[in-house]
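USER: If only I could read backbone structure tokens as easily as an amino acid sequence. It would mean a lot if you studied the pair and described how this chain folds. Here is the record:
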Amino acid sequence: MRIVRTAVASDLDALQALYLHLNPRRPELSPETASRIFGEILARPDCHVFVAEAGGDLVASCMLGMMPNLMRGGRPYALLENVVAHAAHRRHGHARAVVETALAKAWDAGAYQVYLLTSRPDPAVRLFYESCGFALGRKAGYVAQAPAG
């Protein structure tokens, strides 16, 4: 049975292990740094981390950031980031469940759109996002990389 919920502080270790399924080469954070950052994320009313739990394990997650906006009649927009499913639990609807929960939260908050960027070239990833309601080609995505150093 799957449970989708908002992440809590005690999810940190499991969430970090889950993120290795998104990017196994991500830089490791010290426990103190990870705890501080996760605490900051959880304390923000405009930031939401959703997790899917199955059999007592975290199997999928995503993060939604809401952005205030002076355009579109003051309606916010949102960013969806860090969408991940545990490799052993893919194609079971867990990632879709957290994405749908995040989208519902955005729509309930009055967001006029949700942005998502992915660097995954796999056509199945594109089809997954399209099946969740995202449209490719409506806007162009640009990314500025922080200078080295």
